[in-house]
Specification:
Elements (H helix, E strand, L loop, with lengths): L6 H22 L3 E8 L2 E9 L15 E4 L2 H14 L29 H5 L29 H15 L3 H10 L7 E2 L35 E3 L1 H14 L9 H7 L4 E4 L15 E7 L4 E5 L2 E9 L4 E7 L4 E7 L4 H12 L5 H9 L5
């Protein structure tokens, strides 16, 4: 990343962030934030700012859990790719082949959906089904990018049937425990842990912490920023053959752009039939967003659980990365200046998110 290339600049750069981040949090009404930085494949720094709840004023610590929202998806993608490496799944084999009971028996397109379609968000599913309508694929799988949490739910059924165990157990025994993640869970019960950040709306009002009694493969991850940074570090190390998490070729495929994104998100009123204009510098790999900038491929993912906003960004070749978790609906407004300070003021992924979602400014 731009500001972390020169070792002699690191200390001063981190000191500047210690000053700037609280100022940005005050400006955009973000009560709590946690960040972790990776440089050259090693943990560089961890930072914690503000409070877990505006009412109690309990401070955010480096061990505070946040809802990481869609940062769940890269972890589930990693598990699925492990199964591919073991010969238990195939990228281009329909998921329906792994199910004893059809997932959507009345939708002919759904039986064509493969692991590659799910991880690259090209299933044809909406992001989330409407209560008034049955779930279905709205276009041929593989036709184009359309972000979908529903695809990951479909995938979870296939994984559970292949392994004969709940997804939450598979994630723990095959992913988080082997790489030593101890501040990372996929379900959440009331009173499960004291050190958890409370979400706040745009008016800085705390919201009741909801329970996640069962794993949602697209959204239920709760973790500290440093634990997700450790996960991302392991993936970047795997690209260089330095981690048992994934094989080099499997990791390279994860970080390879499969499909370009476009300006027609599934939450648009004109979806799925509106105009589709592909982006040149932003696409999706197998579980990660991919942006092309500064003649390099960057991996990234954002998270949005309403009153929790998150972002992860990394450059796999150099092993640099950052993870930012917040407990506010305004979180992306402070995440953007942090990323611009670290990397560049012209990140294609952030510009695309602004156009389709308006969440970074």
């Amino acid at each position: 990343m731009r500001s972390l290339r020169s070792a002699e600049r690191v200390a001063g750069f981190l000191e500047e962030l210690q000053v700037c981040i609280p100022e940005w949090m005050a400006e955009f009404s973000v009560p709590g934030l946690s960040a972790a930085f990776v440089r050259g494949g090693e943990m560089l720094a961890e930072m914690a700012f503000g409070v877990r709840c505006i009412e109690t004023q309990e401070p955010v610590t480096q061990a505070t859990y946040f809802e990481a929202a869609s940062l769940t998806k890269p972890m589930v993608a990693c598990l699925a790719l492990q199964l591919c490496a073991q010969g238990l799944m195939e990228l281009d084999r329909p998921l329906a082949c792994h199910l004893s009971v059809p997932y959507l028996p009345d939708d002919a397109r759904s039986v064509q959906i493969t692991l590659r379609h799910v991880l690259s968000h090209s299933t044809g599913f909406p992001n989330w089904r409407k209560e008034s309508e049955p779930l279905r694929a709205h276009f041929e799988p593989g036709n184009r990018f359309s972000y979908s949490g529903e695809g990951f739910v479909y995938l979870s059924h296939a994984i559970e049937e292949i392994l004969g165990q709940p997804l939450v157990d598979a994630l723990r025994t095959r992913l988080t425990e082997p790489i030593g993640l101890q501040e990372c869970v996929f379900t959440w019960e009331d009173g499960q842990r004291v050190d958890v950040a409370v979400g706040h709306n745009a008016r800085n009002e705390p919201q009741a912490k909801r329970a996640w009694p069962s794993v949602n493969p697209a959204a239920s991850l709760h973790c500290s920023s440093r634990d997700f940074a450790r996960f991302m570090r392991e993936l970047m190390r795997a690209l260089h053959g330095e981690s048992p998490l994934l094989h080099v070729e499997t990791t390279r495929g994860m970080f390879h752009r499969q499909v370009p994104v476009n300006g027609l998100p599934p939450w648009s009123e004109s979806w799925p039939d509106g105009e589709v204009v592909p982006e040149e510098r932003v696409g999706w790999g197998l579980g990660w967003g991919i942006q092309i900038y500064d003649e390099r491929d960057w991996i990234w993912h954002w998270g949005d659980n309403g009153c929790y906003r998150a972002f992860a960004l990394g450059t796999p070749e150099s092993g640099d990365g950052v993870v930012i978790l917040t407990n506010s609906e305004n979180g992306q407004r402070v995440i953007r200046p942090i990323l611009e300070a670290i990397a560049s003021p012209n990140l294609p992924a952030l510009d695309w998110l602004d156009r389709i979602y308006g969440i970074t400014s």
